[in-house]
Amino acid sequence: LDPDTFAADSSAVVDFLAGYYRDVDKYPVRAADLEPGRLRRLLPEAAPEFGEPAERILADVRRDVLPGLTHWQSPSFFAYFPMNASAAGFAGEMLSVGLNVVPFMWVASPAAVELEAVVVDWMARLVGLPDRFLFSGSGGCGGGGGGGVLQGSTCEAVVCTLAAARDRALGRIGHEGIVKLVVYASDQTHATFQKGARLVGITPANFRVVPTAAASGYALTGAAVRAAVEGDVARGLVPLYLCATVGTTGIGAVDPVRELGEVARRHGMWLHVDAAYAGSAAICPEYQGYLDGAELADSVSMNPHKWFLTNMDCCCLWVASPAALTAALSTDPEYLKNAGGGKPQAAAGAGAIDYKDWQISLSRRFRAMKLWFVLRRYGAAGMRAHIRRHVAMAEWFERAVSADERFEVVAKRRFSLVCFRLRGGGGGGDAMNRELLAAVNASGRAFMTHFVVEGKFVIRLAVDGAMTEMRHVGDAWELVQRTAEQLLQRR
Ligand code: PLP
């Protein structure tokens, strides 16, 4: 690594990206060219034999790659959930990849491990989690009893918690009992729980999808879980794990954490709170109520890479019992025993953590640097303003939809996601809404995705882009209205 080349190439990339962000609203939001195989036809069959200058590579990125991208950072990207980018997120990521250390054990990079332990505690306090999820509780260092880790995604974090819950239960009932273990989720829960349950050996027939209904705002109710659990116990099965979601992917529904926690406690289940998207909102006191009851949970996760201005990838996972997690995930190979002679006594309990035992992979990124940079650069007040700005824009959109009698808001908006559709029941109504969404996206001027609520096709507008301003939300609404008018006239 030659420092001069490093500096030259890096500044060329920074200039390139600054230009990209200046122009990002000029690109069609969704990839304009949806023909599969386009890039393969443009690129050579084999890698180059000799190195090329960065400028030539960047020119190819501009010419060949950018036209085939869907621009997630466009201010008119309202699809899925966002993947926030920010100047601080990028700067922190640059520092992280520039230093390129691998904090899998304390001795492998002590300050990187310790920074991670500090940052996950900061985040836990900011979103109002109880002390039991912190390394350092209100009683000082070592007072919390729990702790956190930064993983790449909620999907990875969920697998780890399922493995911990499984091993804790099997320790009680014996390994052959694995066929009896049951995982509970709702019909709104993210699909990753189903995948995770399969990965840790839960019999697919023992994954319970408990139905939700409009009456509860599509939240999982304690009564519904209790009924499912009691039926399973009567058949000799063993309740293992329950997922409560704060801000479901489809419509942003919120499960009652306390109510579900009480059911989980009564039946000895592991409770996980998945706040992947909406957990960021809990930095504002007005949203912390959604995490009420978190002291009854065994683990909580949220993704700063979604709505917390932290570039990909970054997921906070907190556990009340690190021992339960590490019992399921720890390894002790000979080749890691000589990494520096162990921990000094004074460091034990003060962040001297072997994070390899808190996750699946051994090699891991220095994500703490990025999240620390974001928190320091914007401060808690800046982050609260960021969340509230998006919620205010979503509120405006929701009011605009409600004021137009041709449309309806389909599910209660709690955060910055608005689910709406053109009125009109039956299959015809769905076809019309599908057509509306397809036409809006084909325009290239906004990108939204859909969900299905009680059999009805619904358009989702997630207002969380770091560059999104009121005028972009206003334009999106005008686009939806105009497109709808054309559709309705043709019918
Ligand atoms: N859980 C919820 C509620 C989500 O909305 C998502 C993604 O949108 C996930 C989990 C998956 O997160 P990740 O992509 O970090 O695995």
From TrEMBL:
GO cellular component: cytoplasm
Molecular function GO labels: carboxy-lyase activity; pyridoxal phosphate binding
SUPFAM superfamilies for this protein: PLP-dependent transferases
Domain of life assignment: Eukaryota
Keywords carried by this UniProt record: Decarboxylase, Lyase, Pyridoxal phosphate
InterPro entries given in the database record: Aromatic_deC (IPR010977), PyrdxlP-dep_de-COase (IPR002129), PyrdxlP-dep_Trfase (IPR015424), PyrdxlP-dep_Trfase_major (IPR015421), PyrdxlP-dep_Trfase_small (IPR015422)
GO biological process: amino acid metabolic process; carboxylic acid metabolic process
Cofactor(s) in the UniProt record: pyridoxal 5'-phosphate
Tagged with keyword Metal-binding: no
Modified residues (N6-(pyridoxal phosphate)lysine): 306
UniProt KW Lyase keyword: yes
Pfam families: Pyridoxal_deC (PF00282)
Protein family (similarity comment): Belongs to the group II decarboxylase family.
Name the UniProt record assigns to this protein: Tyrosine decarboxylase
